[in-house]
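User: Round two. Same drill as before: sequence, then structure, for each protein.

Assistant: Same drill it is. First protein:
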Amino acid sequence: MKKRVLYGTANYEELVQKNGYFVDKTAYIEKLEFFENPVFLRPRRFGKSLLCRMLECYYNINQLDDFERLFGHTYIGQNPTPLHNRFIVLLLNFSSVEPTGTLKGIEESFGNTCNLRMRKVVGKNQPWFNGKISIDVKEKMLFNLKSLLSVIEEHDDLPRLYVIIDEYDNFANQLITAHKDSLYRELTADDSFLKTFFKTLKEGRETGAIANVFITGVLPITIDDMASGYNIANFITLEPEFEEMSGFTQAEVNKLLDEVYHDYEIEPSTRSVVESIIKNHYDGYHFVNPEGEALYNSTLVMYFLKHLCRYKTIPKRLIDMNLKTELSWVRRLTASNPQNMEEFVEQLTLYNSISYDEAFLVEKFNMFRFFEKNFFPVSFFYLGMLTLRDDFYLKLPNLNMQQIFVEYFNEIHHIDVSTRYASMMQRFVNEPNLEQLFAGYWEHYISQLPEAIFPQVNENFYRTTFFELCSRYLSRWFVWHVERSYPQGKSDLEFVGKYHEKFAGLRWVIEFKYYSNTDFKKKFKTSIEQFELIDTDTQQINGYVKGLKEEYPEAKISQFVIYCFGNQGFRVFSVPTVTESVAKTD
């Protein structure tokens, strides 16, 4: 039976019932049982909610009869632990809590979320409770929670409570990005309802009424700010054995693609193109070991596969618009320190590299420290916008994040990328000409840059901003590769015609070279108009194209070298391939 791509589905039962594609992460259930009160932080849209629902199904005592149906096809179904289906499970998702304008309003929303969930759990477990407790949603949430824990503690024949909290910091983070700092301080104060809630969970662990508490979220700020209320938290975020618990490995993506291509009878010749695209845009995350295997953003992979299965084509937009909500954090950090944030964004746009203090990843820090300049890299690491490059530097993980940072770079410097490019892009679609396209980029985009930028620019800057601009207008027809690996090195930028559009088979390989105004004058002593293509650059790009021709022998390959000279000008050279050169000589 053909499986379905259930993009955005976080309900594990629904995924099984509707025969959705599923990457088996159940082996981590076994590992989690060795940790008390684990807290697992990952960026948004990395599969944390599905993980929580999977844990709920596994431990829920009321789903014992469903165990084979839900888990028989998984690792844990074939290797169950003694604790499966042993607990009353209370799963709370705090993404539904409304961060209103007053602490009282937030407390009411929080209380309603918890009360409604407790009432549902108690109702479904009445065969166990046998009338010993009922949840009145008009009562205070803490009263109901304490009553529930008290009943469980007093009766040895009752199953223990297993508490799962998904997106524990969602509403608190919204307060921060909305600049409601004083309200956030009230929320995390010693006498706040939130701190009392976590203290109650801590007491439940101490009495044994709660078997364990599993918490997911994005940032460590809120739980650190409430440390005295919940100092039993065991952060497993940076534990090597849990690095791959959310997100997809390369092997997992390969297996998914095998199934999708088989089930939906997608043309096998498209496979290598699809693999390259999703690797460039969704891969590249290292949360623990920079030398280990990179991870894919799992939700975005499913976003891509949903479109591929339905239409047999590549999506026009390769980035899920929900991901761009992370820009609210960039804006919040910018507002807190505009000059430092501008330097931070420029550093990543220009060099895609920024140093960090590894100790900051594991140290406790409150909201105010989170907005200090030295913490910017770590802040963005937790948000999923930066990843480990090595033990000293962080980087942007993939093309999606590079695009987002260029977008914000443009916003900071008030660069128009939306009203002056239509005619040049239309001309290119009618008759592709790289030199004309780059001339339009130089005339309309580079001309807007402040003079202070040019002493810092480099090849990466021109390549990235040119790619980002083209992707805005040409994504219907093209995808792009940045730093694609070949036996003789990595190409700078490649235009790839989508296999289902008018430029199918077209591949342009582009090498960027940069000279500052001063270096150009010193080294070449000639005008830009008289500048000639350098032989070593021809040899370099020929090496990349040789590898490309072996991989795609039928492709229509062209190769170019683009020289950029500070802000003074540029030259675009079309480089004959080796076979073309031989033919002309003959």
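Second protein:
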Amino acid sequence: MCKVMFRILSRPRGGPARAAAAAVALAVVATLPAAAATVGARPWSEDVIYFVMTDRFRDGDPANNIPADSDPGLHDPAQRNLASYHGGDFRGLEKALASGYFNRLGITAIWITPPVRNVWRSGFDLGGWKSGYHGYWTQDFLDIDLHLTSRQSLAGEPYPEGAEGRMRHYRDLVELAHSKGIKIVQDVVLNHAGPVFYYDANGNGRLDPSGREEWIQPFRDDGFHGNARWGDVAEWNMRRTMPDGPRELLGCRIPTTGVLASLETYGRKGFSSDSLGKDDGEEVVCDFFSLRDLWTDPASDHFDRLVDEFVEIYAFYLLEVGVDGLRLDTVKHVHHGFWDAFTERLRRRLGPAAREKVLFGEIYDTRPERLGQYTWRTDAPANPAPCLDSVLAFELCFAMREYLRHPGGDFGSGLAVEEAMKSFSQGRFDDGRYYFNRTPGPDGLNSVEKSITFIENHDGLNRFRVRDVTERRHELAQGLVMCLPGIPCLYYGAEVALLADDGRIGEDSETGRLTLWPGDEDPAIDEVAERGPFRTIAALAAARGRWPVLRHGRFVPLWIDSPEDEGDDGVLAFARVGQGMDENVVVVLNASSSAAQTGALDLRRVFGVETPLTGHVLIGDEPVVEAGDRLPAPANSLVLFSPAPAE
């Protein structure tokens, strides 16, 4: 029987904890790289990602809220209308970076929504008009959106006018992040452009903004709609897609050809209302609402030009701007052969720098075989080289939500988490291949090691914390993300348990796209760092630094309460197992409002011998007192057990 000692690493509730917060912050900073030179050398498996919707983080420069000649009605100064621009920008991120905000939180990489110049308004998207505040409606792939950039640098030096100045601001943001030891991941969309053209449904040769049919045409299985016309509405930046030829930026000539500025590059098949959930091929070729689908079929006449165009564009961002990785949007809506060509040619174009970059994708699907197929090329198994480096772990995301996303003190079963981890690590195709490609990428890591673990996002999943979900349950959810395998990815606002009050459990919505720091609020980092969720996340990041097995170890399930048992108390226990048993740990999560414990565990399989253990309470209120082979778990807690040092 093991002797167990306990230590509380999270903050005590109900009293001042400035000293504790400072200690946690120092512990986190100690695990971070000291200089920008270490950023590229740090393996991606060491990182903690913070996903931020830039327009909703902080309005650092109100001067860019209404760009010259733009429609002023697209900006909401009250920051309440979720369909409008709120004003968040690069300057808001820069101020947070400069203050040490992300370092104190334990973040080592920031994934930003697409920064490229967008169409600023659409007349039809999910039922009504919206603005392009989120960045996914590209108009110019080689310009930065005017809502994001400033006229002068953070140090007060003026930027040049136009696209050159905007790109310099982006480069400065990346360099500032690197100086803090933080990588930048750029979200990119290669499936579609924004509403750059309209369908001239009434044949009058001009856009009729109130006509739904000019934004949306029904899907055509055969052929295409021949009435597509480029937009020309300056106040909405509704224009022909760019670039339309070579560009000069940051002292570099980018040899783009203008293939994106040709209507023949687009499918023009119209919109299918149920295509988002399909996998019969229709989802690959139709428009997304009023967004314009790029024709990515490898059999098309323009295929090689289109692939090479995107290779040159994103090689520029990765090599010249200094971006560290790409998050690829709407992967399953693009021909798989396109991803084969794009990833292979981009890595070849990057050369040795490919070892430091990451390409991970979004496949909005819970089936592991569907997720994993994009880590393989279409010519597998003959060619085992990786396609995407990794993907967002949607199956695991939904499993974690099934377990923890319930009202009040309710909880589900952790069995779904175990099943998701089992299919992730052991699931195979009929030909014997693992679902997730084990072939290392240029950095020596494979798709399992670089999988992105998350529990909330900006799309229909919404924030984990909606009405009826408590702050403590939110913290437990973040704890599970940080303790399971993969690269943890936190959604902006997680550090203050930002509440999507209009969201509902079981309903898809985008109500969580809230502004984190409203108006011109300048949050003092010492005050923000006092908040419970901030300190919890910082402590979790410190734990990942202290116990490397949380970053590299295998998942071994130990105890999961049976949902059929009336005594089910919401406990999930698992080990993270590394090369040596002395580095292994056990994580016990109790989702219930009552103290509980695991059943009898054979801890020899984890630690090799009977050994004293220390219980580090990463999330929780009270110390635990029980000891033995039944590991105790206080109410609403997450406890990490590791071998105690010799007396």
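The chain has 16 helices and 26 strands.

User: Perfect.
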